[in-house]
Amino acid sequence: MRTRSTAGAGRLAALLVSPTLLVLTIVVIYPTIMALNESLYGPKGLDPRTGFISDTEPFVGLKNYTDIFTQAGDRFWNAFWNTTLFTVVTVSLETVLGVAMALIMHKAFRGRSAVRASILVPWAIPTAISGLLWKWIFNADGIANVLLGHQILWTADGFSAKIAVIIADVWKTAPFIGLLVLAGLQVIPQEVYEAARLDGASALRQFWHITLPLVKPALLVAVLFRCLDALRMFDLPYILIGAQKGSVETLSMLAQNEASNVRFGPASAYAVILFLYVFLIALAFVRLLGADLIGDGGTKGGRETRRVRRRATAPRPAEVMA
């Protein structure tokens, strides 16, 4: 009887999951296989028999990949380190600012709705519009230079361009982390903080020993999403700084540049390498912190919440004596 019930639950689970698997197959697995197949072919060349451009792309095997690490080695590694730098710096800053935003939005005060709306506005603005906005701010005669009192070429090719991209990206996406962390703060029982205050815990100790551990699962999910998004960064540096600028060129921009020049084989090779990079980062993230992502951290937080709650509701010695 138990075996039949288990089999029925398994069939129901497979039925419920099948639409998700179908969507993933259409939008992820099939394009990935096609990109991998396309990366094995080179650009169309002249047909020596007719003298015209060939109708088919020649099969070159792994030549596109070897060319990336040999002929285009300097440009590839520059784009690789730019992608990694933007990911590490922006996600770190966004995490700190996002947690601060969540704490502000979680506080009860007059005008909280207006503050929440103003904080979330940057995340609601499309990236293309955000890039144009910051391009106007970072113009030679823009607001940034007026406030600083110096003439800095933010949108030129150099270190200042990296700073401009980081500032614009942090401004836009820090509210995303703040929103997810705010959702985690909403489920923390207030009696946990009441018990901590009765024990004489300061605000800093409450944040470090109560808020941060209990909001950790939501924070880890937010950081993972932002890492995967930052690794694919394309539109913001492309619009804000421009194409083929070595200081801000990312792997996505390299793939787009090859595709725009009708070199679909090398473009697919760049896309496959970027896919593997993102996949390995996600896999390492889940392997190292997967317990918190799939719910073990939530169980641990639940045990801690229940322990503190019991402490808060337990009778005091004076009450027992009375």
Through-space gap between termini: 56 Å
Oligomer: single chain
- By secondary-structure content and strand pairing, the structural class works out as mainly alpha
Shape category: flat
Tally of DSSP helical segments: 14
Proportion of residues in β-strands: under 5%
Q: How many strand segments? A: 0
> Helical proportion?
over 70%
Averaged pLDDT, please?
Answer: 83
State the low-pLDDT regions, or none.
296-302, 311-322
Cα-atom radius of gyration:
26 Å
- Give a quick account of the main beta sheet: strands, pairing sense, barrel closure: none
Structure characterization notes:
With 322 residues, the chain is mainly α. The chain contains 14 helices and no strands. The protein has helices at residues 2-38, 63-69, 73-106, 112-124, 127-137, 143-148, 159-186, 190-198, 203-231, 235-240, 251-260, 264-294, 296-313, 317-321. Helix 7 (159-186) packs across helix 9. Mean pLDDT is 83; it is low at 296-302 and 311-322.
Set out the fold topology.
Blueprint: H1 2-38, H2 63-69, H3 73-106, H4 112-124, H5 127-137, H6 143-148, H7 159-186, H8 190-198, H9 203-231, H10 235-240, H11 251-260, H12 264-294, H13 296-313, H14 317-321
